[in-house]
Design brief:
It is a single chain. Helix content is about 25%, strand content about 25%. By secondary structure, it is an alpha+beta fold. It has two domains: about 90 residues, Glutamine synthetase, N-terminal domain (Ubiquitin-like (UB roll), Roll); about 230 residues, Creatine Kinase, Chain A, domain 2, CATH 3.30.590. Strands 6, 7, 8, 9, 10, 11, 12, 13 and 14 form a nine-stranded mixed sheet that branches. It binds adenosine-5'-diphosphate and manganese (II) ion (3 copies).
């Protein structure tokens, strides 16, 4: 029997340096849960999202990924790219369209974030600070995680899994009120699509708990960890051929483009990339085996496999746009000739 589906068309607005998520619902009848190619283009008023002038305000929405919406009856979450009114030219704010197509590129993003209420992290006292960092990472117990956070984090995980988002894990992080989820995807755009969708589900879930999601990279001054979004990446060549020579050529390309990378790795990153709290200084490029103080960490497995496998860029921050990050990483990789 045909059903009316609630299609939440979701896109990124034109705010800088970090876009915001926007969404509106299209009701449409389908015989079954729709596939991507059944979904129509739609549009919105770009003058309200910093994507157009008032006198010519139409922007087009091109569906690029669909997920079942576990929180709505007959609901779907539809990730969209913003297009010019001609529907074929990507809008200048559309970073997804700049990602090189590569089915063999895999990304794993580790999204860190804080949950806040009344202007402070969950579990922080009204005045002053809780006990210093130490026991919070991967912890259990009211004294460590407070009373509200775990319920939200678990509910978010269930929503994401039900939507088909490829979470690989979650954990309580180093600062009180700080959490992480990891998302892995094959294909140059998949993990980035899913990170944005997981963020959307987290923001929407937190509305009913009167909790804010704080994804700024250094919300608490002082001796408290900031939030990152480590980008783990690999290509077919890195996984299957690799080798020392190629690895070194890759790292010198990353060194050369270091400022271009930092430019899209999230705002205010100088507050976080200080050389303390498991980070490298923002103006230096370094790499090292299992080195959490390096810009790029080489997993042990990479060395054991003769320079084959994935690498972890530790510089992207929690507020970074995974589309811009994936785009930049693949662009730099593409400058290195394959032997
Ligand atoms: P850590 O906190 O020690 O950095 P995590 O387990 O949180 O480690 O994150 C490791 C990430 O690496 C995961 O997101 C995982 O999906 C990703 N990953 C594993 N193998 C690959 C690969 N071949 N290519 C890209 N990413 C990968
Ligand atoms: Mn991690
Ligand atoms: Mn982490
Ligand atoms: Mn990591």
């Amino acid at each position: 029997m045909p059903q009316k589906y609630k299609l939440e068309y979701i896109w990124l607005d034109g705010y800088k340096p970090v876009p915001n998520l926007r969404g509106k619902t299209l009701i449409k009848e389908f015989p079954d849960f729709p596939t991507l190619d059944q979904l129509p283009y739609w549009g919105f008023d770009g003058s309200s999202t910093q994507q157009a002038e008032g006198h010519s305000s139409d922007c087009a929405l091109k569906p690029v990924a669909i997920f079942p919406d576990p929180a709505r009856t007959n609901g779907a979450l539809v990730m969209c790219e913003v297009m010019m009114p001609d529907k074929v030219t990507p809008h200048p704010s559309n970073a997804r369209a700049t990602i090189l197509d590569d089915e063999g590129a895999w990304f794993g993003f580790e999204q860190e974030y804080f949950l806040y209420q009344d202007g402070r992290p969950l579990g922080f006292p009204e005045q002053g600070f809780p006990a210093p960092q130490g026991t919070y990472y991967t912890s259990v117990g009211y004294g460590n995680v407070g009373h509200l956070a775990r319920g939200i984090v678990d509910e978010h995980l269930d929503l994401c899994l039900a939507a088909g988002i490829n979470h690989e894990g979650i954990n309580a992080e180093v600062a009180k009120g700080q959490w992480e989820f990891q998302i892995f995807g094959k294909g140059s755009k998949r993990a980035a699509d899913e990170v944005w969708m997981a963020r959307y589900l987290l923001y929407r879930l937190c509305e009913k708990h009167k909790v804010d999601v704080e994804i700024h990279c250094k919300p608490i001054k002082g001796d408290w960890n900031g939030s990152g979004m480590h980008a783990n990446f690999s290509t077919n060549y890195m996984r299957e051929t690799g080798g020392k020579e190629y690895f070194e050529a890759l790292m010198s390309a990353f060194e050369k483009e270091k400022m271009e990378h930092i430019a899209v790795y999230g705002p205010d990153n100088h507050l976080r990339l200080t050389g303390l709290h498991e980070t490298a200084a923002i103006d230096k490029f370094s790499y090292g085996v299992a080195d959490r103080g390096a810009s790029i960490r080489i997993p042990h497995s990479f060395m054991e496999n003769n320079y084959r496998g994935y690498l972890e860029d530790r510089r992207p921050n929690s507020q970074g746009d995974p589309y811009q990050i994936a785009s930049r990483i693949l662009k730099t990789i593409s400058t290195v000739p394959l032997p």
